[in-house]
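tool_call predict_complex ligand=calcium ion
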Amino acid sequence: MNNFFKFILLFSIGLTIVSCSKSDSQTPLRDYTEQYTKDITNIETFLNTHYLVVEHHPGETEDLDVSYPLIDAGQTSIMNQLDYPIQTRLVTVKQNDVDITYKIYYLKLREGSGPDSKSPCNVDRVLTSYRGEYIYSSTETVGGTSVTTIKSTQFEELINPQSYFNLTGVIRGWSEIFPQFKTGTYVGNPDGTVTFDNFGAGVMFIPSGLAYFGGSTAGVPAYSPLIFSIKLYEVQRVDHDSDGIDSYLEDISSPDNPGVADGYVYSMEEGVVNPDDTDGDEKPDFLDTDDDGDFFTTASEIKNPITGQAYPFANIPTCGGTGNGKKNYLDPSCHGAN
Ligand SMILES: [Ca+2]
Ligand SMILES: [Ca+2]
Ligand SMILES: [Ca+2]
Ligand SMILES: [Ca+2]
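tool_result ok
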């Protein structure tokens, strides 16, 4: 980590992306399911009635700036264009005791690449520049006829980020989509600025239930679906349970592919099996200081008995001879390096 990043870690600024849902206590919140139906209809209408403009300026701040004009002369919609095929991620959340499966549409303008390229997991911290817009419905009278158009308006832009965002402290949509991208490269300039290149860049279209929902914040009306265009500059790992294993390495499985890490660590509701909970005690590995439930802490199990220091992650021994390939701290049949 260079000095620039050490320096900016010292700062913490409050921006509206930080999740703070404060609703008017006089008005009951709308029904989540009904609101989602409206949101996804408006998002899909937006995607079908606007087209994508992407600017290419390699090595400059403006690289992969994006805009979404209304189709007016037969352009191909965001939904149907093939330069950056639209992708979706489904996210199920229990809200007011009802499971709602949200669809987040997103575009990968560039995944991100470089010798040290890395993806954040959903609980890491990210250095990102971004632009936020909200989607709304606008009705105008044209030639005596009432015409409704789905439009978007910018509410926030951050071009030169000075601090990291904690993906556990921002809207849910961000923590779901950032892991789909990777960092690129950067160089420090003599004037103290930093030039980023080949960074991950994309656009996400987020239903209000995974954003501010009924909270109106910093120029965003309540119940607004949001559009964020993002550029991923750097990732900072977090070890939430301080057991010596960074949280992204405590991603051991995925709901669809048992045993295959997917870039997300999961916290499940009570009674729901968590793919990232080795000992099944309902504490996910990234929050569990004894991951295999053998009463030996993970921190003690990853210590090299000769040096007394933790092994580098790649060198943590597997349980001697049992042949299941699990590292010691994930296997209750052995303890530590013995
Ligand atoms: Ca940990
Ligand atoms: Ca556990
Ligand atoms: Ca752990
Ligand atoms: Ca243990």
